[in-house]
Design brief:
Bound molecules: N-(5'-phosphopyridoxyl)-D-alanine
Shape: globular
Order of helices and strands: HEEHEEHHEEEHEEEEHEHEEEH
Largest sheet: 9 strands, mixed
Helix content: 25-40%
Radius of gyration: 20 Å
Number of helices: 8
CATH superfamily of the largest domain: D-amino Acid Aminotransferase, subunit A, domain 2
CATH architecture of the largest domain: Alpha-Beta Barrel
Distance between the termini: 57 Å
Strand content: 25-35%
CATH topology of the largest domain: D-amino Acid Aminotransferase, Chain A, domain 2
Length: about 300
């Protein structure tokens, strides 16, 4: 019998759980193998849906309220009804983390336009399909914190990247290309201008200043991006929100990504080029530490009882 090595631990933390997992589908908590949806669901037929991914730290949701604000915005942008309150979603998400014993990980939720005959325009009077599940993942102790490689690909997506749509084929292809190139993340660009990571926000550090793309229809308004901006301000680190080029990223002192699934993660190599020293830089490390400290503080604070 061999001991538990680092790679074993990664596999244990990231592999899907067995049929013991409890999921939530259209109002019911059900075992994973009973959580079934129709082949006529518009999420399946058209990718006609919206999703969110929120982190769990110390068994508690992190910034899930902000994710639900974005869910409300994305649903409104595509005309899908928000048929249950943010408070109801919060309770479902927390219950999934608790019932599945997730100490550190992610909660995923999806809302589709529902089940109908395959016609492109919206069906009338069809309730949205809603589901959610939780999975374990190492976040505060992520082995990738030593730095990851990114691979550059053209951004093939549509023009409303601010909507967190389940139509993710372009990102699937981008991230598969990254994996084939031995990289952890894809850096997507539009004619040499960086848009985003395949599933993350991209940042660079130039002359000690943080640079990230301003919010617009061109990128998703990352929740981790927003919190990182607040932490940068608290650390008195200058920030400029502007578009930047691939060449600037290659020549940057530091490069990193932010997302609910990776928090703040150093990108130490873009394709075959080392970024800065090729090691995680001090600005990225300080932001990752600050992010984790905040996450631990928020998820260990006593829960205030709401008085009548
Ligand atoms: N993706 N940009 C894109 C294209 C993303 O898909 C994501 C997140 C982000 C970062 O957003 P946030 O900080 O709110 O996680 C930016 C999620 C994690 C996913 O698809 O799995």
């Amino acid at each position: 019998m061999h001991g538990l090595g680092r790679d074993d631990r990664v596999i244990l933390l990231t592999s899907p759980m067995t049929s013991m997992r409890i999921c939530w589908l259209n109002g019911e908590f059900v075992a994973e193998d009973s959580a079934k949806i129709s082949i006529f669901d518009r999420g399946v037929l058209f990718g006609d849906g919206i999703y969110e991914v929120a982190a769990v730290v110390n068994g508690r949701l992190l910034d899930a309220d902000l994710h639900l604000v974005r869910l409300t915005r994305s649903l409104a942008a595509v005309g899908i009804a928000m048929v249950q309150s943010a408070a109801a979603w919060l309770e479902i998400m927390q219950t999934l983390a608790t019932r599945n014993g997730i100490v550190e990980g992610l909660v995923y939720l999806q809302v589709t336009r529902g089940v109908a005959e395959r016609e492109f325009p919206f069906p009338a009077n069809v309730p949205p399909t809603m589901f959610a599940y939780a999975r374990p993942k190492a976040l505060t102790n992520d082995p990738n914190a030593v730095g990851v490689r990114a691979h550059v690909v053209p951004d093939l997506r549509w023009a409303r990247r601010d909507i967190k749509s389940t139509s993710l084929l372009a990102q699937v292809l981008a991230k598969q290309a990254a994996r084939a190139a031995g990289a952890f993340e894809a850096i997507m660009h539009d004619e040499g201008i960086v848009t985003e990571g395949g599933s993350s926000t991209i940042w660079i550090v130039q002359h000690g200043t943080l640079v990230t793309r301003p919010l617009s229809n061109d990128i998703l308004a990352g929740i981790t991006r927003d919190v990182t901006l607040q932490l940068a301000a608290a650390l008195k680190r200058p920030v400029v929100e502007r578009a930047f080029t691939l060449d600037e990223a290659l020549d940057a002192e530091e490069c990193f990504l932010t997302s609910a699934t990776s928090l703040v993660l150093p990108i130490t190599q873009i394709d075959d080029r080392n970024i800065g020293s090729g090691q995680p830089g001090p600005v990225t490390a300080a932001l990752r530490d600050a992010y984790i400290a905040r996450a631990i503080e928020l998820t260990t604070a006593p829960v205030l009882a709401v008085s009548a």
